[in-house]
Amino acid sequence: MKIGCWLLFGVFLLIVIFLVGKVYLIRKSAQEIKDSLKEIVTFDTNILISTSSRDRQIRQLADSLNTQLGLLRRERHRYQQGDTELKEAITNISHDLRTPLTAIYGYLDLLKEENKPESVQRYLDQIQNRAEVLKQLTEELFLYSMITSIQEINYQQLTLNRSLEESLISYYGAFKGRQIEPEIKLPDSPIYRSLDPTALSRIFGNILSNVIKYSDGDLTVSLHGDGKITFTNSAKGLSLITAGRLFDRFYTVESGRNSTGLGLSIAKNLTERMEGHIKAYYQDGKLTIELYFPERR
């Protein structure tokens, strides 16, 4: 009886040891697959996922992941190639449009000096207005293609307080023209961040330009102690849906004044390239754009 019990115990112990070993090998294989997948995704290499396991199911899993990664890699390269070609096309188009625009402005200047009836003047004013919109569009198209093509960010230590103040001061005339009196809330202590000053100035400028387009006459700019910056203004012409699409390329709303739909898209692109976050939300008739740059370590 005792021999039978010991034999049963020995079989049970062998089964437990076998299962523990099996679980260990599965966990080891899973970790190998995880590490390989992380390296492939991070560095976009052409290496394949490999595993030391001889288990057929584990090896089939690795083979299946390699197949899907190959398809994903090809699609990524196609997208990158198409994106590069699109940027080159935008650059060429915006450049080609500048020559006829220059000619149009030249003829408009000549026509301004001529005696003409009031009806003709109205038509010329419309042509001037549309030419200004086209000029702004070509400039922003060119700027967008240049910004998205440049890979290097020139990081410098700066204070968000001062950078924000300088941008607000530069828009004083535009605010006054739209009868907007900004309420500015800045902390007494400086908030330091390592950012590209030119890119940061462009981000602030594009956000403030958006305010001028959509504000109903007010603006509150707040710099919080954690570095978060909020721009809030009344904008009854917007909605939850339109606010959520403000960062989409070429998206505009009807209340936008001569808008190209690229300003906030450029701001988002620059923000994310400096590892920041930007979002917009709409509540109780007010639009808030929130900007945050974490401290670089």
Automatic annotation (TrEMBL):
Catalytic activity: ATP + protein L-histidine = ADP + protein N-phospho-L-histidine
Keyword field: ATP-binding, Cell membrane, Kinase, Membrane, Nucleotide-binding, Phosphoprotein, Transferase, Transmembrane, Transmembrane helix, Two-component regulatory system
GO molecular function: ATP binding; phosphorelay sensor kinase activity
Residues that span the membrane, as ranges: 6-25
Tree of life domain: Bacteria
InterPro entries in the cross-refs: HATPase_C_sf, HATPase_dom, His_kinase_dom, HisK_dim/P_dom, HisK_dim/P_sf, HssS/ArlS-like, Sig_transdc_His_kin-like_C
EC number: 2.7.13.3
GO cellular component: plasma membrane
Domain Histidine kinase: 92-297
Location in the cell: Cell membrane
Primary location: membrane
Recorded topology in the membrane: Multi-pass membrane protein
Protein name in UniProt: histidine kinase
Organism for this UniProt entry: Paenibacillus jilunlii
Source species taxonomy: Bacteria, Bacillati, Bacillota, Bacilli, Bacillales
